[in-house]
Amino acid sequence: xxxxxxxxxxxxxxxxxxxxxxxxxxxxxxxxxxxxxxxxxxxxxxxxxxxxxxxxxxxxxxxxxxxxxxxxxx
Length: 74
Known about the structure:
Elements (H helix, E strand, L loop, with lengths): L9 H10 L7 E4 L2 H10 L2 E5 L5 H6 L5 E3 L6
Parallel strand pairs: 1-2, 2-3
């Protein structure tokens, strides 16, 4: 259903429920604004992956737990 797509936290919450994990035990790595919004709505930590020019500034405005420009930095 379209209402379950990001930025809805539905899929993240479903994954946590199915794996028996809590939001505090999770971190999402995402490369879009909706990824960050979904993770924050689900109560998980979120690392923004700024894989293209201009993304770092957009992501930092959303206050993710971290921002990386390379997955090697993880």
